[in-house]
Write a structure and sequence with these properties.
alpha+beta, elongated, two-stranded antiparallel ribbon, Immunoglobulin-like, 22% helix, single chain
Length: 139
């Protein structure tokens, strides 16, 4: 026959259950409300950045830079394709490097080494059994 639960044991079990429920609720409230000085800020001079740091204002002038990085995702340089006397395909690329100041964030310029006037440089195709016997630098 199961042991009878006394009133005192019943109250202890209920108090422990209530304390556990309140502890979980308090922990959830603390997690959703960080202490002052942490997380997002809504006061004057804050644009919602972490710890009051302002985010970029405006947009990068891609026309001034001479390239738009988003357009480079689908741009592929196939090179000048020809056939060698042996019948192998030959791809020739011209990649020029230039020192250029580019805008990386609105109002923030960076002295960069660009390839064909952009960063990153053009995508090329190279296989492991290909070789090049000529490489030059333009000045």
């Amino acid at each position: 026959m199961p042991k009878k639960l006394s009133r005192r044991e019943f109250l202890k079990a209920g108090a422990l259950g209530l304390a556990g429920t309140l502890g979980v609720a308090a922990a959830g409230k603390l997690a959703s409300n960080p202490p002052a000085g942490h997380g997002q800020h809504d006061g004057p001079g804050h644009d919602g950045g972490p710890h009051g740091m302002a985010g970029p204002v405006g947009e990068v002038d891609h026309e001034k830079n001479g390239f738009n990085p988003s357009e480079l995702l689908t741009d592929f340089d196939y090179g000048k394709v020809s056939r060698m006397p042996s019948g192998q395909r030959l791809r020739e690329y011209e990649i020029l490097s230039h020192n250029k100041t580019i805008e990386v964030m609105p109002g923030i310029n960076f002295a960069a080494w660009t390839f064909n006037g952009r960063i990153p440089g053009p995508s090329t195709e190279v296989c492991s059994d290909w070789y090049s016997d000529s490489f030059g630098l333009a000045r």
